[in-house]
Amino acid sequence: MGPHPAVAAIRLAVRRVLHDVLTDLTERPAAERPAAGRGAAAEGAPPLVLVACSGGADSMALASALAFEAPKLGIRAGGITVDHGLQEGSELRAAEVVARMTALRLDPVESVAVRVGREGGPEAAARDARYAALDEAADRLGAAAVLLGHTRDDQAETVLLGLARGSGIRSLSGMAEVSGATGRTHRYRRPFLQVDRQTARKACMVQSLPVWDDPHNIDPAYTRSRLRHEGLPALEKALGKGVVEALARTARLSRDDADALDAWAAEAEAGVTDADGRLECAKLYALPPAVRRRVLRRAVIAAGSPAGSLFARHIEEVDRLITGWRGQGAINLPGRVEAQRQGGRLVIRQG
Fold first, then answer.
1. Among 41, 64, 206, 219, which is most buried by a count of CB atoms within 10 Å?
2. pLDDT at residue 40 greater than cutoff 80
């Protein structure tokens, strides 16, 4: 008799991702492969894959599936939990998660404490601190990949949040199955983007895995919490079941389109840049709007504007220097970056 269907589903999802990790390591040049760090074995030893585990149902299900599948593929499996320090007793909760991952025979296992800032709001600040900690741990331990427990439900919520911001097709593309920090494009893997939240919770229940339900996930002070417990149920009531699956499908299709447009913009950039590295307004004007705005966004980020603080309205203002030029002055952008039209050229620099 095989495993429960929920357990089989999460294991299959993780198995596929681990195969992808091994393939990626084989095809990547040796210089680009993760270097062994503390807790990593010598060169030629099995690669290390970490799971980012909060102790919630999604990440505990992911940790259990990784612990089961990794040894069969010759992969070492470890775990990291991040203590954000935002709730009383958070260090005890982190210690409990470490104990649970250790019981699953993950090794190495660590708890990493972070300080959460205020920039971008509480949710964004916590996310930035968490990924910084995961990046540091992955580099130090020489991990080939870090698995994240985002489910199809999380993807649907992300798409709706992007739609509410009105930030264009990239926001609608949601979370990528494979992403990473700068220079680490293959680091983060999300095996559960096609798995619903209920399946992950069911897998924990049938395996008798203890889980921790973060009170922030039901706190109406947080936008995602309101969307999860009020917004999505209202949509399902009005439109019927299948909304979550449809939103996740929208993310996949939007990501394909956004990736193609980004590639077009990267190729077009060289053709609209003069010898001094400035953008030529007449050549920009000739580009399709979707491509032109991507070229402008790339240039603004390159000048020092934080990508996370740069919204569609900022790029639209810069775009008007090309399409609606009336002699307007410099435009102030996040990161103290200025965009100004001078002599038929677009000058983008930090003020």
1. 64
2. no
Task: Give residue 36's pLDDT band: very low, low, confident or very high (50, 70, 90).
Answer: low
Question: Residue type at 38?
Answer: R
Q: Are 302 and 310 in contact (CB under 8 A)?
A: no
DSSP annotation of 324 reads S
Question: What backbone phi and psi angles, to 5 degrees, belong to 97?
Answer: -65, -40
Distance in angstroms (rounded) separating the CA atoms of residues 282 and 260 = 24
Nearest of 68, 142, 50, 149 to residue 105 by alpha carbon: 68
345 - beta bridge partners?
A: 280, 342
Percent of the residues in the chain that have a pLDDT greater than 70, as a whole number: 92
**pLDDT over 70 (residue 37):** no
Q: How far apart are CA 45 and CA 47, in angstroms?
A: 6
**Distance in angstroms (rounded) separating the CA atoms of residues 61 and 277:** 50
CB 47, CB 20: distance < 8 Å: no
Least confident of 5-19, 209-223, 262-276, 332-346: 209-223
CA distances from 299 to 15, 269, 277, 322, 338 (A): 39, 9, 10, 14, 11
Q: Are 78 and 50 in contact (CB under 8 A)?
A: yes
Provide the pairing of β-strand 109-113 with 76-83.
Answer: parallel
Q: Where in the chain does DSSP place strands (E)?
A: 48-52, 76-83, 109-113, 145-147, 178-179, 188-189, 279-280, 331-333, 337-342, 345-350
**104-120 pLDDT tens trace:** 999 999 999 888 777 66
Instruction: Please give the pLDDT value at position 308.
Output: 73
Which among 75, 77, 17 is positioned nearest to 52, based on CA atoms? 77
- C-alpha 306/C-alpha 350 separation (Å) is 12
170/161 Cα distance (integer angstroms)? 12
What pTM did the predictor assign?
0.85
Taking 90 as the threshold, does the pLDDT of residue 309 lie above it? no
| Closest among 145, 158, 155 to 189, alpha carbons compared | 145
Cα separation, 100 vs 210, in Å, equals 8
